[in-house]
Amino acid sequence: MIFFWAFVVGGLICVVGQVMMDVFKLTPAHTLSTLVVLGAIGDGIGVYEPMIDFAGAGVTVPITSFGNSLVHGAMAEAEQNGLIGIITGIFEVTSAGISSAIIFSFIAALIFKPKG
């Protein structure tokens, strides 16, 4: 049943993004930013973690989880290190994902012929 709910909830997040682009005529950059902010707000008000428990990868794979990670890391480090922890927490939690995206993009650019 977890696969079903992951599909449904992840699909609903994607539908929200698609509606933002099709109906509201937002650019992909605006849609991406809005979804990241919605994920951050969801973690800030305590709704995102129960959604992760309920839908698993359906909530952790879409871009909303990046906003969740930013706020989650900042809040966790702020508890330990105070105000400076807000900045360090953001980098600590998201650095692995950002670093791997840069490394794999570089490798892909070496293997394939990028246009531009």
UniProtKB/TrEMBL annotation:
InterPro entries found in the cross-reference section: Spore_V_AE, SpoVA
Origin organism lineage: Bacteria, Bacillati, Bacillota, Bacilli, Bacillales
Record protein name field: Stage V sporulation protein AE
TM stretches of this protein: 83-112
Source organism of this protein record: Texcoconibacillus texcoconensis
Keywords: Membrane, Transmembrane, Transmembrane helix
Keyword Transmembrane helix: yes
